[in-house]
Amino acid sequence: MKRVGAISLKTAEWIGLLVVALLFVFPFLWMASTAFKTMPEVRQFPPSLLPESWEWSNFVRAWESGPFLMYTVNSIVVAVGILVLQFLTAVPAAYAFARYRFPGRSLLFGLVLVVLMIPGQVIFLPIYVQLSGWGLVNTLWSLIIPYAASAFGIFLLRQAFMQVPDEVIEAARLDNASEWRIMWTIMVPMAKPVLVTFGLFSFIYHWNDYFWPLIMTNSDEVRTLPIGISSLHMSDGGTLWNVMMAGNMILILPILVIFFVAQRHIIKAFVYQSK
Amino acid sequence: MRKAATAHELPGTGQVQAKAAGMPVAWLELATRLRPYLYLAPAMICFLLFFFYPIGSIIYLSFLDWSLINLEEMEWVGLQNYRDLLADQDFRQVLGNTAVFTVATVGIGLTLSFLLALWLNKKAKVYGIIQATVFSPHIISLVSVSMLWMWLMDPQFGLLNAALEAVGLPGYTWLADPKSSLLSLIIVSIWKGVGYNTLIFIAGLQSIPGDIYEAAALDQSPWWRTLVRITIPMLSPTIFFLLIINTISSFQVFDTIAIMTQGGPINSTNMLVYYIYEQGMDFYNGGLAASASVILLILVGILTALHFLFMSRRVHYR
Amino acid sequence: MARVVLQGVTKTFQNQKVVKGLDLVIPDGSFTVLVGPSGCGKSTTLRMIAGLETVSDGNILIGDQAVNALPPGKRDVAMVFQNYALYPTMNVFDNIAYGLRNRGISKKDCKLLVEEIAEIVGLSDYLKRKPSQLSGGQRQRVALARAMVKKPKVFLMDEPLSNLDAKLRNQMRVELTSLHKQLGTTFIYVTHDQVEAMTMGDQIVVMSEGQIMQVAAPMDLYQEPENLFVAQFIGSPAMNIVSAEGRSDQLWGFRPEKALLLPASVSPVPADDRWVAKGQVVSREILGSDTLFHVETEKGRVIVKADTEEARLLGGAVTVTVAKPHMYVFDRASKKRVGRLGGREQAATLAGGVS
């Protein structure tokens, strides 16, 4: 009796796990399925699970409904540009916090933690005013510069740098390496896993970002992919769900690919925030 | 050799030191002292320009009458913006919506995540896969998540209503009905965030030393008592952190509103950041937007202060 | 190649003096060992010579150059660390070559130099490996090679052998000594282990609480300790200290290996040239060749080192006797050695056996 009970409990758990998985995966599968359907099939009731014929043309329509190549290029330029700048500003800052004792250190680090906690949504207006004063609104710069330094990046790297044994740095000093050289040839290579983690986090965040480009830009030349995709459903009267879903597939596919390749790193990146 | 010659017996060793280094000693020392500040400068200048200055600026702007159309004309109006804001019926509704949204997403979201974490915190590979699956919406752009759920919630052709009808229930209007629109946004937010919270909970659970559970088991503690007396108290730092983080991010909700409802119908889904955006960018009412921003800033500031207070105490007692 | 001179070198950490005005000459080409209990300031002294710590007061000279203001990389010294401190992201070749590259030595010369050194320390087959793929002994060799390749004026070593197992440590001890002979460079070696100090050094600096207790060759240090601290620190087990007979301002000491243990039944020949104490064996430690007897005597508890064959029963009554010339006399107040009982100073004759 007990044995049977144990088996059916196990089965129940497996069913439960399957339901949970479907709850989170099925919407994406449905998105993919819709992206390949014809409009009549989209409107069909009851809906079909898989498309009858695979309409690749939905993707073409989505892509051609706006300057999507430009959006994509802009998205890449912005996400990569931010990443490079954040890397260049975070490495020396984290090195200073991790390796030097100097007056004002804890105050400055406290400020970094404040930046870490308070979201940009709170202060977008004055930044807009400021950038517009500099004539930078509606340029790619307005999307990049405000994010040139990352508090999260500094925080993560500082942790990594603090774990480097003092002796290794002292050995490098005796090897006549300058502080600058120690930073880039000893510390940065040793912090590589953390850099990868942070890079993924930053790239995903800014690739996905909708709010900032919406605020800062108003012309196609400088808009990014999320803005382009979001304008798909406002195109004409009846919503073209299939084209819309196809467009979104374009937006999320790179992220999903990265997620599959570097899943462990990404999960670490996001979970790390809690520490 | 009985005893080494002492240093003082050596001639001429005292005078060499001044010119020993290639550079003057004082200059070298100054460079060493300045170095950390130089290394911090790029990042700190960025924070100053795009964080601390704007914070001061937003407070100042909230006392002015201004708009984005003409930044040349700004007029000091004192507290008038705040008076207008509090008198604004819409803003009151916005605050109410934000409160309901926050309590619901944080409350339901964290409860679900906690239960999922208890369930999925196991070694076998399946659980890892399910964890990753539950987490996956978190890394997807809110644009896609919003559009996907608009499609699922479409009253005519959407999958949700099709499913409801298949089991004989009436369809739902979801986003189109002021009674259900906020609930719809809550569902989307929970769906997107639950995976992240679950993973943080799991990380927290794994940091609880296993021998405590073994001791509890030896004491024949029933599972619910172990949960209430051991797991939850040990997890309290994680719970607190998640409460703060989730509350702050609920205050920030914007993308879903902008894409799914634009605050409607009849203002039923309008919340703080969207209100600020509308006032500032669409209605060119800079003063109102700025004062609403300051209120948001105060709310977030309080939460941040609580967080730091809690963290410092934790560090202190460790 | 250079002599190292310390003049009144002082180090203060947060108002606490950890090194108190050291005056010391480390002769060119010597193997000088700084030894002392942990916290005595020996490592700090070494790190000040390396330039890793600033000097709070006083001067350090390497050769004839004052180096107080010179950064570590410009002092022409090399250091071997306790934990090797290899660069974990670089392979063995790059680890050794890093210092050369930082000095702007051409790629070609780098390669030649590294390969030459690798040959000497026996690492030629491991140049492509990462430190994590090496054994403890191999890592130690990389650390040595990294120091040697720079052809420094002075080698600094901070407890370099303490992470190795006993067997490897003995082997490396011999290797380091012969390396020193081969290179003829000044070695400054820090350790807390007196055996290491005695076996390797030709000049030993005993330190305690930031001060130098004695500077001497190994045998001198053993035979002629200048004070109570050195007497008790050098030698294993430590020198026995008993109260002086008839003089409250003095303390007497004798080495456990210089005492004789007789059964109580054998009454010792009463003689003026012996110190005698009756007592009971309370415990013994068998070391193999020797045995340590802990004896509770009327004049205090002492340890006697004797042949294992002299197996005494635990709890047996015994008599401890020491020839008076082996009894050291210390001043109770200043802790300085005054001389020996019997008034015979053997220093001059015994110190000859050193070097």
TrEMBL record, chain A:
<keyword id="KW-0472">Membrane</keyword>
<feature type="transmembrane region" description="Helical">
    <location>
        <begin position="140"/>
        <end position="161"/>
    </location>
</feature>
<keyword id="KW-1003">Cell membrane</keyword>
<protein>
    <submittedName>
        <fullName>Carbohydrate ABC transporter permease</fullName>
    </submittedName>
</protein>
<feature type="transmembrane region" description="Helical">
    <location>
        <begin position="240"/>
        <end position="262"/>
    </location>
</feature>
<feature type="domain" description="ABC transmembrane type-1">
    <location>
        <begin position="72"/>
        <end position="262"/>
    </location>
</feature>
<keyword id="KW-1133">Transmembrane helix</keyword>
<keyword id="KW-0813">Transport</keyword>
<dbReference type="GO" id="GO:0005886">
    <property type="term" value="C:plasma membrane"/>
</dbReference>
<keyword id="KW-0812">Transmembrane</keyword>
<feature type="transmembrane region" description="Helical">
    <location>
        <begin position="107"/>
        <end position="128"/>
    </location>
</feature>
<dbReference type="InterPro" id="IPR000515">
    <property type="entry name" value="MetI-like"/>
</dbReference>
<feature type="transmembrane region" description="Helical">
    <location>
        <begin position="12"/>
        <end position="32"/>
    </location>
</feature>
<feature type="transmembrane region" description="Helical">
    <location>
        <begin position="182"/>
        <end position="207"/>
    </location>
</feature>
<dbReference type="Pfam" id="PF00528">
    <property type="entry name" value="BPD_transp_1"/>
</dbReference>
UniProtKB/TrEMBL annotation, chain B:
<feature type="transmembrane region" description="Helical">
    <location>
        <begin position="99"/>
        <end position="120"/>
    </location>
</feature>
<keyword id="KW-0472">Membrane</keyword>
<feature type="transmembrane region" description="Helical">
    <location>
        <begin position="182"/>
        <end position="203"/>
    </location>
</feature>
<dbReference type="InterPro" id="IPR051393">
    <property type="entry name" value="ABC_transporter_permease"/>
</dbReference>
<protein>
    <submittedName>
        <fullName>Sugar ABC transporter permease</fullName>
    </submittedName>
</protein>
<feature type="domain" description="ABC transmembrane type-1">
    <location>
        <begin position="95"/>
        <end position="307"/>
    </location>
</feature>
<dbReference type="InterPro" id="IPR035906">
    <property type="entry name" value="MetI-like_sf"/>
</dbReference>
<dbReference type="GO" id="GO:0005886">
    <property type="term" value="C:plasma membrane"/>
</dbReference>
<keyword id="KW-1133">Transmembrane helix</keyword>
<keyword id="KW-1003">Cell membrane</keyword>
<feature type="transmembrane region" description="Helical">
    <location>
        <begin position="37"/>
        <end position="63"/>
    </location>
</feature>
<dbReference type="InterPro" id="IPR000515">
    <property type="entry name" value="MetI-like"/>
</dbReference>
<dbReference type="GO" id="GO:0055085">
    <property type="term" value="P:transmembrane transport"/>
</dbReference>
<feature type="transmembrane region" description="Helical">
    <location>
        <begin position="223"/>
        <end position="245"/>
    </location>
</feature>
<keyword id="KW-0812">Transmembrane</keyword>
From TrEMBL, chain C:
<feature type="domain" description="ABC transporter">
    <location>
        <begin position="4"/>
        <end position="234"/>
    </location>
</feature>
<dbReference type="InterPro" id="IPR003439">
    <property type="entry name" value="ABC_transporter-like_ATP-bd"/>
</dbReference>
<dbReference type="InterPro" id="IPR047641">
    <property type="entry name" value="ABC_transpr_MalK/UgpC-like"/>
</dbReference>
<dbReference type="InterPro" id="IPR017871">
    <property type="entry name" value="ABC_transporter-like_CS"/>
</dbReference>
<dbReference type="GO" id="GO:0055052">
    <property type="term" value="C:ATP-binding cassette (ABC) transporter complex, substrate-binding subunit-containing"/>
</dbReference>
<dbReference type="GO" id="GO:0008643">
    <property type="term" value="P:carbohydrate transport"/>
</dbReference>
<keyword id="KW-0067">ATP-binding</keyword>
<dbReference type="GO" id="GO:0005524">
    <property type="term" value="F:ATP binding"/>
</dbReference>
<dbReference type="GO" id="GO:0140359">
    <property type="term" value="F:ABC-type transporter activity"/>
</dbReference>
<dbReference type="InterPro" id="IPR013611">
    <property type="entry name" value="Transp-assoc_OB_typ2"/>
</dbReference>
<dbReference type="InterPro" id="IPR015855">
    <property type="entry name" value="ABC_transpr_MalK-like"/>
</dbReference>
<dbReference type="InterPro" id="IPR027417">
    <property type="entry name" value="P-loop_NTPase"/>
</dbReference>
<protein>
    <submittedName>
        <fullName>ABC transporter ATP-binding protein</fullName>
    </submittedName>
</protein>
<dbReference type="Pfam" id="PF08402">
    <property type="entry name" value="TOBE_2"/>
</dbReference>
<keyword id="KW-0547">Nucleotide-binding</keyword>
